[in-house]
Structures are given as C-alpha cells and as structure tokens.
Amino acid sequence: MSFRVISRDVCSSLVWDTIEEPDVDFDEFVELFSKTAVKEKKQPLSDTITKSKAKQVVKLLNNKRSQAVGILMSSLHLDMKDIQCAVLNLDNNVVDLETLQALYEIRAQQEELDKIEKHIKSCKDKDNSKPLDKPEQFLYQLSLIPNFSSRVFCILFQSSFSECMSLITRKLEILQRVCKTLQESETVKKILGLVLAFGNFMNGGNRTRGQADGFTLDILPKLKDVKSSDGVKSLLSYIVAYYLRHFDEDAGRETCVFPLPEPHDLFQSSQMKFDDFQKDLTRLRKDLRACTSEVEKVCKVSDEDNLQPFKEKMEDFIAQAKTELETLDIELGSTHKLFLELTVFFSVKPKAGEREISPNTLFSIWHEFTSDFKEQWKKENKAILKERLKAAEECFRQAKEKASYSVKPKHASGIKAKLGMKI
C-alpha cells in the first residue's frame, strides 16, 4: 500500500498536526501483510536429468515399464534433493504422501537395479559408451537415496496405520452408540410398548397371542403392512402418530428429536462383522512388526548423519502404535460383549448356519423398521405443524375480530329523557 504524500503548507493547519504515530508491535502485522516470496516454479523432474547428446541411449527397461516411469517423471515438478529431504527427514511439506506412494511403487526392483549398475560399471572406463535412458537414470538416482525403500515403507505405513485405526474406532463408536440406544433409550421402550399394547389388543380374542409379554423383532418391519379397515392408514403410521401426539411434547416443532437410532447408523452397523475387525487388527499387528523390522534395519546400516530424525520419530510411532492396538483390542472386546448382551436383551436367535448372531441379523431388522418409522414420523410432524399453524391463525383471527368489535352507547329514549331535553 503506497501513501499519497500530502505536502504541508506552513500557513495551514492540518489534521496531521494533531496526530502522532503510536508505538506498535509490528510482529503480527509483518506476518499478515508482508509480501510473500514468489514460489519458484519447478520444472518437471524429467527435465532435471541431463539429456545425453548421443543419438543412441541404452534402454534396460521394457517399453511399458519405461513409459510408466517416464510419465511419473514428467508429472512431478520436483528436484531429486526434494525427494531425498522428504525421505530422510520425514517431511511431507514439499513431497506429499501420495507422491511418495507413487515413487515407492515405481522404484527399481533388484533385478532392474542390477542391470543398471552393471551397465554403469561397464561404462566407467569407456569414452564412447552409450548413456542410460532417462527412466533408467531416474530409477538409479532414486536408489542412491539411503535406504529409500525401507524408509518410505515406514513413512507410508505410519500414515495408513493412523487412517485404519481411525476408521475402526469410528465404526466401533457407531456400533456402541446403536447398542446403547436400543438397550437404554426410554423412547425406544415407549415405542416397543405401544407396538405390544396395540398388538395385544388386536389379538385380544386369541388366547395364544392375545396377552403376550413381548414379541420377536421380526414383526417390526411388518407393521406397515397391517392396514386399517378403510385401507388409508397402516398400523405403523398410527403408532407413529399416537407416539407423537401422546408422548412427545415437541411434536411439530424444530426441537422434535427422532426417538429411535438413526437408520444410517443402523445400516452401517448391519454391515459390520466382528471377524473383519479381528482380521484388521491382525493385519495391523503384522504390518507393525514388518515396520519395526525395517526401522531396525535402517538404524543398523545408516550413517550417523542420516540416522535422525528417522530413528527417533519411528521409534516413538512404534511405541504409540503398540499401545493404541492394545487399547483398540480391549475396546473391540467390550463392544462385542455389548452386542451379545443386546441380542439376549431382544431374544434374538442366530440364523441357520451362524455360529453366533451377526450384527446383520439384528440390525437389518431395526434398519428397515426405523427407515419406515422415520418416513411416517416426518409426515406426521408436518401434519402436526400444519395443525398448530392453523390453530394459531384461528386464535389470531378471533383476537382481531374481538379487538375490532366496538360497543355503541345506548341513548335514552323514554318520556323522562324527552322532558329532560326540553328543560
């Protein structure tokens, strides 16, 4: 920002004569408003590799492999030193994890590297030797980064470990929330109580089913199929309306809360398998052992200059990862126990061929029921809202009519009044 300088006239009095610049802390100001250095636009990595003037180059990779390496080189606007810095210092600011993943996947295999190194050695003392093609040069330069493969494997595993742990944790949280809601929620119990009451009343003439103490959950999705005598309402829609009008004070308002677990949570829960959770944890333990082995290998062969911060950061990660796995294993066990208690709570039996009840067996029933219930719940809430608005409009209309109604004074018209007027 450039000021337009005001030239001061000795004779005139300006506002600036009365203003003094205060003492200001410019640190934050500088951070916010200082001009940022223009980021250097780097050329593609393929352009940083010296192109040979020789007409012929040595191609040791097959065409498909060479093309794949070439495409990656052209897409990366990096220097090899950027990649080395990211790998040695575990710094993802310039080279992100996605790029590291691509570099790791395309790295030279031992057979390819042997061919490249053999060619380089054979050309060492020759003047007219054919140079390597760019893809081969790139793979060779990548291999010169100390312990590239092992280091990148550990960096990538650290990232994927965190993602996997977060995913499993979120799933268990959903499962726990659903189980606790179904077992402890008073609104769930009220709705089941209504189903039981109306069901018993409908079956009143049947000695076997008329006075049931409870029912199996498979009846819940069938409530929508039981129609009223005129075919307009279903038993489900009636129960929803009855619940809202008799048990929910916020019915028809924005504060009205859905009384059952969310259908989406139930659907997610129905797709979960405890065996899959165990497999995920087993795989993570196995990969963590592999990572530990790679870290030990890197620390054993690395020079002192390249040992840190890799050693410290990875050892901290491994220690923390082991603790997190133990904690998650305990959490999985408690969630499984909670689920099994819920199946007993609702008297759910395993399907034919099932060793124990699966989440799908229990939650698919609840998912279908809550989806149907929520659809009717929304409709009934809208209907109640319309009724409230209509009642409010009617009250307003009556109040307006009352306010506009005026009482005219009654004028006296008897003989006494007439005589009084004459006087």
Automatic annotation (TrEMBL):
Superkingdom of origin organism: Eukaryota
GO cellular component: actin filament; cytoplasm
Pfam families, sorted: FH2
Tagged with keyword Flavoprotein: no
PANTHER family: FORMIN HOMOLOGY 2 DOMAIN CONTAINING, ISOFORM I, FORMIN-G
Family that this chain belongs to: Belongs to the formin homology family. Cappuccino subfamily.
Protein known as: Formin 2b
Gene source species: Nothobranchius rachovii (bluefin notho)
Upper lineage: Eukaryota, Metazoa, Chordata, Craniata, Vertebrata
